[in-house]
């Protein structure tokens, strides 16, 4: 009986921890009240990112991980606005270029500007792909593929945790 009670308490505690982590993904609080444009984000150390990002954000955005398909906050999210880098706050994508690729990840047919996103060859899956990164802080965002819709034919496949959405009416 005691063991069962203990197990139930542990489960409740685990759910609370998971829930607080999930809420942590909502908005990157380390960007609140600072002028993100005046910071040398590329000089930030791994210890810094570890201290300001949730574990999930750190593993995906700083370590090149990938969130499970259909689990990200923005996969089925189509409100108007700007998507910014959850590490440094740089504007990366716009809702104007978002579409449903049915892949399980948020998809865009272009970045918000030519300079916002950087491109790196990636051979880690036994084939040649192109990694996309934030041009300001180097955060891993996802990959870009050539099976997107017109007019670019590109599919920017992005992890939700590497973004946060700011509402804007176009
Ligand atoms: Zn960034």
What is the topology?
Layout: H1 2-24, H2 46-52, H3 55-62, E1 81-85, E2 91-94, E3 98-99, E4 107-108, E5 117-122, E6 129-134, E7 140-145, E8 155-158, E9 163-167
The protein binds zinc ion.
Bound compounds:
zinc ion
Q: What fraction of residues sit in β-strands? A: 15-25%
**Cα distance, first to last residue?**
59 Å
- In order across it, which strands form the biggest sheet? 3-4-8-7-6-5
Radius of gyration (CA) equals 18 Å
What's the tally of helices? 3
**Poorly predicted residue ranges:** 12-24
**N-to-C series of helices and strands:** HHHEEEEEEEEE
> Based on the structure given, which CATH architecture of one domain is correct?
Beta Complex
Counting helices, strands and paired strands, the structural category is alpha+beta
Overall number of strands: 9
User: CATH homologous superfamily of one domain - what is it?
Assistant: Peptide methionine sulfoxide reductase
- The helix fraction, in percent, is 10-25%
CATH topology of one domain: Metal Binding Protein, Guanine Nucleotide Exchange Factor, Chain A
The coarse overall form would be: globular
The biggest sheet amounts to: 6 strands, antiparallel
**What would CATH call the class of one domain?**
Mainly Beta
